[in-house]
Design a protein that fits this description.
Layout (H helix, E strand, L loop, with lengths): L1 H4 L13 H19 L1 H4 L2 H28 L13 H15 L2 H20 L11 H22 L7 H25 L24 H18 L4 H15 L1
Helix pairs in contact: 2-7, 4-5, 4-7, 5-6, 5-7, 6-7
């Protein structure tokens, strides 16, 4: 139990695209497919409410367990433990999205989730913790449920991003980055990886040295947000209808 919930870790370090990593990615993907196929049943009011509150409760419990882990291991520090990284902020916002059904939160989480959180699932930064440790499961459960929450609101509750959502979320993201930069100065932290790149492999490795990779990330984010909006644009909808008609022939 100490090895599972302790700070020190004895075991093989996490390996990207290992069998466990691929398995968890597959579970998240299959869960999203099931939600899409079950969207009509999930639109029933009682089922919808139950699903949202269940996912929200799991996310809340997972975050509570993380802070319990910090407390038990006496490892909480303002420089690394605040929920300010994009993925951790997305977890908190997802809880409120599922409870309040706020469209603004959906806009933020749609773009944050399908870019940053999804990228984190593919290239995790979990300090080497593998499948025999709590942090491994906490990471994939919370990140996976953020994706599931966003797609649930998209497939089931028929929420859709708008063209203006791209500009709005870019503005919110940059404002948040400025706020976090001040927190980094105060705490000596590296939230949002503003001060340096993550130790694990990530897209930032291909975007130049500091601080150029921050500017490069702005461009990548804008391109990513635009691509994510395309399926909901008038052209994207026409293409989807065409493909559906083609497949039905």
């Amino acid at each position: 139990m100490r090895n599972f919930f302790g700070e020190s870790y004895i075991g093989k370090p996490f390996e990207i695209f290992s069998s466990y990593h691929i398995l968890l990615i597959s579970i998240i993907f299959i869960s999203c497919i099931i939600i899409y196929l079950s969207k009509n049943k999930l639109r029933k009011e009682k089922v919808n409410t139950c699903f949202r509150y269940t996912i929200g409760t799991i996310l809340l419990l997972e975050q509570s367990l993380l802070y319990l882990w910090y407390h038990i291991n006496n490892s909480w520090t303002s420089s690394i433990s605040l929920p300010l990284n994009l993925c951790e902020a997305a977890v908190i916002l997802s809880i409120f999205l599922l409870i309040t059904k706020s469209y603004l939160l959906y806009e933020i989480l749609y773009f944050w989730g399908m870019t940053g959180v999804l990228a984190a699932i593919i290239t995790p930064d979990i300090n080497g913790y593998n499948h025999t440790h709590f942090i491994f499961y906490h990471f994939f459960i919370t990140h996976g449920l953020v994706i599931i929450s966003v797609l649930f609101m998209t497939f089931v509750n028929k929420y859709r991003p708008k063209a203006i959502s791209i500009i709005k979320v870019m503005g919110i993201t940059n404002s948040y980055m400025v706020f976090v930069a001040f927190i980094n100065i105060i705490t000596g932290g590296n939230y949002l990886f503003i001060c340096s790149k993550p130790q694990s492999a990530s897209i930032m490795d291909y975007l130049g040295p500091w601080p150029l990779y921050i500017i490069s990330l702005e461009i990548v984010a804008l391109i990513g947000f635009t691509l994510l909006y395309l399926p909901f644009s008038s052209i994207g909808i026409q293409v989807i209808h065409f493909l559906k008609n083609l497949l039905s022939l």
